[in-house]
Amino acid sequence: MKILDVVCSKGRTGFYFDDQRAIKAGAEHDGFTYIGKPVTDGFKAVRQAGEAVSVMIIVEDGQIGYGDCAAVQYSGAGGRDPLFLAEDFIPVIDKMIKPRLIGRELNSFKELAEEIDNLNDENGKRIHTALRYGVTQAILDAVAKAKKQLMCEVVADEYKTQVSETGIAIFTQSGDDRYNNVDKMIIKNAEVLPHGLINNVKEKLGENGELLLEYVGWLRERIMKLKTTPDYAPVLHIDVYGTIGLAFKNDVDRMVEYFRQLEKAAAPLHLRIEGPVDVEEREQQIKVLAEITSRLHKENIKVEIVADEWCNTFQDIKDFADKGAGDMLQIKTPDLGGINNTIEAVLYCQKKGVGAYQGGTCNETNRSAEVCVHLAMATKPAQMLAKPGMGVDEGYMIVYNEMQRILAVRKSRK
Prior knowledge:
Elements: E1 3-18, H1 20-24, E2 28-30, E3 33-35, E4 47-59, E5 64-69, H2 86-101, H3 109-117, H4 129-147, H5 151-159, E6 170-171, H6 180-187, E7 192-195, H7 201-205, H8 210-226, E8 235-239, H9 243-247, H10 252-266, E9 271-274, H11 282-298, E10 303-307, H12 314-322, E11 328-331, H13 339-352, E12 355-358, H14 366-379, E13 383-385, H15 393-412
Parallel strand pairs: 6-13, 7-8, 8-9, 9-10, 10-11, 11-12, 12-13
Antiparallel strand pairs: 1-4, 2-3, 4-5
Helix pairs in contact: 3-4, 4-5, 5-14, 6-8, 8-10, 10-11, 12-13, 13-14, 14-15
């Protein structure tokens, strides 16, 4: 079965592009938007509508493989590729990618995906991560349709894995509405919650961590009050954006003692802390996270450390895993480019005995989220992110429902 055509359309994402540099420089909230001028190249406002490109691969029998090119909320920041705007990048697909795909046989996802993922532009630089992300999604779907398989089954066949016979734990994120949204998560029995968005020492963490301690205690009590089944015990996973390091001046001894307090506040629930420190340099970040992780293990403090900052590419993930820099690593799917890298990253973490968190961004689409469910079902990460958006319900629905479809279809074949 061959590719007949590649068609693109402009799309919207489930959230927004935010100019992180402008926000850090002092841009203030005005309702849901920001006051101030953008700083990062390509931005026309500090917050602007997220854009995507839907890629449709037309198979010669008339079927269509779908994928969505999308980039993270803070595009253009932290060494990432520039702002991803549809009108700028649809011509790149038409000029550079479409001619490579038309006429190709749909007999191997891995082969075609790796080719696109390693494609360079006219300046010798790899094409935008969002392009690699969306086009490889469409390739996977097209190969699955050509082979009359589910996408997860194609991945399992080509990477020698087994499709999960149970759902993958879904991690829901609250955004700033960290109280009302938690109620939604509990009502829906989310397995991992709430993310929390603890990105400010004074307002959210506390100068000595007291505000986060109070919040963790509230989470525990709220879950006990609202749970509808006696055995419901979700994992608490809180992203602190390096604020613990800021509050305790990156003093490992003080941070370890604080984690002991957090463990007690969360008990009997299990606690994960994402991004406890950000020392703003990759090698030092690996070193500090490895030290914190090792100390917690040595002192039998049951708090898992999740790596995020400076752990962006597949190579980063390998290096963090090799050095034990975290109990779990977030695999930010759009930042890795081709979805073949997400597959490889999860498998590498498992090989190294490190937890794999198949993450992403609120600024994706329903389609990219659905494809990511198939990757998760084929590779079995410890958890995957409910996405897109920050409203809990929509992202959880998209991920949960696709997971259940996979389970039901495969069960019906037995």
